[in-house]
């Protein structure tokens, strides 16, 4: 999990910009969570994406290139498996991961609770709110600073349940405090295409990612 913002933060100030998520907190754990306009505005299923657009194909996800976007692949040290896509854009970072999910139920409500437990167990703090993608978490996550001294870094966890997949995003950097950067990163997350494929996969398995044939610098 990457949270790369080096600046000081104010969790309450950020959380005040979105609605309270009392309704989301009481939703069934297996209910799908996605914007009503997901199929038309994204994040997209591979069957919904415009085939004429010049996506960077990473296997399980496709990324739409744009000026100023830098793409990184995050690799698991032991297995050398690509486990996440890191996107640097608008002074911010966006990490995306896509997982297999059941056809009729969602994962985000349950996974959100697990993230909440993990962060609080590490001594972090968080608020749950409703944003443009639905229920989300804004957290102050303990992390080592440049000199090794522990600091709290601000990160936003968003998630969308699609058809047979779940897409998670972790946002950090300027998008946590700057409205223009936030809108740019949200649009970037919406433009992601998930390629679930037709092979059977257990729910919560990471949809395989591959190294693109083109350069990772966009």
Automatic annotation (TrEMBL):
Disordered: region residues: 1-55
InterPro entries tied to this protein: DUF3710
Feature: compositional bias, Low complexity: 12-32
Record protein name field: DUF3710 domain-containing protein
Pfam family, one: DUF3710
